[in-house]
Amino acid sequence: MHQEKEQLSHPEIEKRLIDAGVQPTAQRIAICRYILCEADHPTADEIKKWADRYFPKMSLATVYNTLKTLVDAGIIQEFKFPHSDSAVYDCNTDVHYHFLDEKTGQLHDVEPESVNLSVKLREEFKINGVQVLLRGTKK
Predict the structure, then answer these.
(1) Sequence-distant (≥ 6) Cβ neighbours of residue 71 within 8 angstroms
(2) pLDDT digits (tens), the chain, 139 positions
(3) How cofactor binds (record note) (predicted)?
(4) 10 Å Cβ neighbour count for 3?
(5) Which of 25, 61, 96, 121 could bridge across to 125 with cysteines, CB 3.0–4.6 Å?
(6) Is 113 annotated as a binding residue?
């Protein structure tokens, strides 16, 4: 149910950015490394707190601009869920759903094959994407 974090080297992250058409600045590499290798569905504020410890003097604007660049390039995904005012950033760019553990607040990735979803809309509606948030507690 949960995706394993990749352990990417600095050159591998740099190559991933370049391949996506993104200039690999030090800030982008650092934030990318944190999201892809360490964090679990972090918010921008959590990323900023991490940056304050490990990459001093990075502004909140730089964090937001970098996140937008990484989302636009398809390196990460941004999700907004009804349980939080903050967007979360996800390194899993495959189609997937989420399970929210209401006791811990932790989000878990859920493979689409484990959810039976049937949509029957009139032809006038064009679906661009589906977000499913399952809520409960993990045993």
Answers:
(1) 77, 78, 89
(2) 444 567 899 999 999 999 999 999 999 999 999 999 999 999 999 999 999 999 888 999 999 999 999 999 999 999 998 878 889 999 998 889 999 999 998 899 999 999 998 888 888 998 888 889 999 998 8
(3) Binds 1 Mn(2+) or Fe(2+) ion per subunit.
(4) 14
(5) 121
(6) yes
- Tell me: domain 10-89, CATH 1.10.10.10, correct? yes
Residue pointed to by tokens 């689409």: 112
**CATH T-level topology, domain 94-136:** Dna Ligase; domain 1 (3.30.1490)
φ/ψ of 68, rounded to 5, equals: -60, -45
Domain ranges across the chain: 10-89, 94-136
User: Which tokens in the block code for residue 80?
Assistant: 């907004």
Class of residue 136 by CB neighbours under 10 A (exposed 0-12, middle 13-18, buried 19+): exposed
